[in-house]
TrEMBL record:
Protein name, entry field: F-box domain-containing protein
One family name in Pfam for this protein: PP2
Residue span, F-box domain: 55-101
Record organism: Centaurea solstitialis
Length: 332
């Protein structure tokens, strides 16, 4: 049933219920920093009572009408409802609801899957996509953000353009048990390094701001990686945003002392590159580190985005960098 065909009462109940869910979500966020507050507890209790009342009223509607109403909410709201009201669980788990949360180009995404996707419901398919699937012969991964349903993807090292990547004297293709991909690439030794990834915005969600992140590890044998900052950029059409980044985190006293010892030299070398923040890698939950290359906005039309990291001005040998790929995910 199309939303415009709902009767006035159903539309009225839908608007109230969606507003209630929104208020519930906002209060849960605002009180999460003070879970012991008595007033916060009372507010949450009032919201729960209001939600239960709305659930009782909505339960009087036909199931197809109710499913259409719930499809106007969000994946998080639908999951919350299955817990809050057993009487509405069937409607909240229906294919009508979860089809609305899946991407409009779902058939194309499934056709790109590296292996067959087995699922018994649209909800199961949604959460399989949230866990990420390999696509395009296994050199890219695709996923959905669990809360928003926004598209995300990772370009593996094989999907990137890396200078001299097929020269065994400079790079080594290898496996890594912590990677989702069959191969990662490790830098042996090189003096100039250029890494570029490209993606078409048709593979992302429209009207969304995305961040691009280089996913890396640094081996114990690493050398020369931060003699000069690397330059990063994200480009779309004629617009390009540049910055600088270091490849090694300052996570122990030895690295911090080395940074202080070579500070004067580093400041002199920094004059060779563009001005930037000198970003450092941050740890990820999957055991890797990431460096933000930049961000960009995806509109309604299809455009190509280029994401780069390069260090070509230091002319010093470097090695020990392990690259899994570039992740593109929406920014909250």
């Amino acid at each position: 049933m199309h939303p415009t065909l709902l009767n006035p009462l159903a539309l009225h109940l839908a608007n109230i219920y969606i507003t209630t869910l929104s208020i519930t979500h906002q209060i849960s966020i605002s009180t999460s920093f003070n879970s012991t507050s008595i007033s916060s507890f009372q507010e949450n209790q009032e919201i729960l009572k209001l939600t239960e009342k709305m659930a009782t009223k909505l339960n009087m509607l036909p199931e197809d009408c109710l499913s259409t109403i719930l499809s106007l909410t969000s994946p998080a709201d639908a999951c919350r409802l299955t817990i809050a009201s057993s009487s509405l669980r069937l409607a909240a788990e229906s294919d009508t609801v979860w089809s609305r949360f899946l991407p409009s180009d779902l058939p194309r995404i499934i056709s790109r899957a590296h292996s067959q996707l087995d699922f018994s419901s649209k909800k199961e398919l949604y959460f399989k996509l949230c866990d990420s699937i390999l696509v395009d012969g296994g050199i890219r991964s695709f996923s959905l953000d669990k809360v928003s349903g926004k598209k995300c993807c990772v370009l593996s090292a094989r999907a990137l353009s890396i200078s001299l990547s097929n020269e065994p004297n400079h790079w080594k293709w290898t496996s890594n048990s912590a990677s989702r991909f069959s191969e990662v690439i490790e830098l042996k030794t090189i003096s100039s390094m250029q890494i570029e990834g490209r993606i078409n915005t048709e593979n992302l969600s429209p009207n969304t701001t995305y961040g691009a992140y280089l996913v890396i590890k640094v081996s114990d044998r690493a050398f020369g990686l931060d003699s000069i900052p690397s330059e990063t950029s994200v480009s779309k059409n004629e617009c390009s945003v540049t910055n600088t980044a270091y490849l090694c985190p300052l996570e122990n006293k030895r690295q911090q002392l080395e940074s202080l010892f070579f500070m004067n030299r580093r400041r002199m070398m920094e004059k060779r590159v563009v001005e930037g923040e000198g970003r450092r890698p941050s740890k990820r939950e999957d055991g890797w580190m990431e460096i933000e290359l930049g961000e960009f906005f995806v509109g309604e039309k299809s455009e190509e985005v280029k994401m780069n990291l390069m260090e070509v001005k230091g002319h010093q040998l470097k090695g020990g960098l392990i690259i899994e790929g570039i992740e593109i995910r929406h920014k909250c």
